[in-house]
Structures are given as structure tokens and as C-alpha cells.
Design goal:
Length: about 130
């Protein structure tokens, strides 16, 4: 998991965790809210792990509602140069010609943009699961 803090639209701090969102997101939110005045949350709303997206969405949405914060989604492909995104242990989501498919390829890591300028925010932040849960 990768979390960034932006001031004036520019990245000022990053937190990376190898733990699952369900294990670390609440703690990270607590630490950041004690250190910064948070006004907006933007998260990668997919594609990704069905459970990971669901946990992240519910946690972040609840946090935003409780604190009266703006909440947006962003396409995960915008955070890794449109390269493959891990779907599960063996498969990755691949974006080609505007369509997303599952393929057996190595995923790339997400990178936070230095600036939020040009990032297409999605006001309807619901997760984009791409595939149904099995």
C-alpha cells in the first residue's frame, strides 16, 4: 500500500506499507490526521483486489463522512503509467486499447504523482472491480 500527502497539490510525504489495507490503513489514517489537516482523500479505485478495494473504499469513505472530507477515486492505471496491475497471485489487469483484461504478466508498482495537476478525479468514488468476486 502506498499513501501520499499533498500540500498545494504537490507531494510532500509518502508512506509505504507491505501490509494489507485491512491491517494498516486505519493506523496510517490516524497518524496522518494527527500530523496534518486533511481536507480531501483520493484513492485508486481500481482495478485491483476485490477485497482490497472494498476494504479501502469502506474505510476511506467512512473516514471522509465522519470528518466531512471530500472523497474521490482515480483510475489505478493513472498511477503506474498504464502498466499491468496485480489482480491476484498469478494474474494482472492489463489495459490495452481502452479495454481491461486479465493476463499472466508481471505487475508494476504504483507511483504517486509529484503533482495532482492533470490527475482525473472521479467524483463517484465507488470501486471499479472490473471482475466480479468469485
Amino acid at each position: 500500500m502506498l499513501v501520499g500527502v499533498y500540500l498545494g497539490g504537490n507531494l510532500i510525504e509518502q508512506i509505504k506499507s507491505d501490509e494489507k489495507a485491512s491491517e494498516s490503513l486505519g493506523e496510517i489514517l490516524g497518524l496522518l490526521s494527527a500530523k496534518f489537516e486533511i481536507s480531501k482523500i483520493i484513492y485508486a479505485n481500481g482495478p485491483g483486489s476485490f477485497m482490497g478495494l472494498k476494504v479501502a473504499y469502506l474505510t476511506l469513505c467512512t473516514f471522509c463522512v465522519a470528518r466531512g472530507l471530500e472523497f474521490y477515486g482515480v483510475d489505478g492505471f493513472a498511477l503506474n503509467g498504464a502498466k499491468p496491475i496485480r489482480a491476484n497471485k498469478n494474474m494482472s489487469f492489463v489495459l490495452k486499447n481502452g479495454a481491461i483484461s486479465l493476463q499472466r504478466v508481471e505487475p508494476y508498482e504504483f507511483e504517486l504523482p509529484i503533482s495532482l495537476d492533470g490527475l482525473e478525479l472521479i467524483a463517484d468514488a465507488l470501486p471499479n472491480y472490473v471482475i466480479d468476486a468469485v
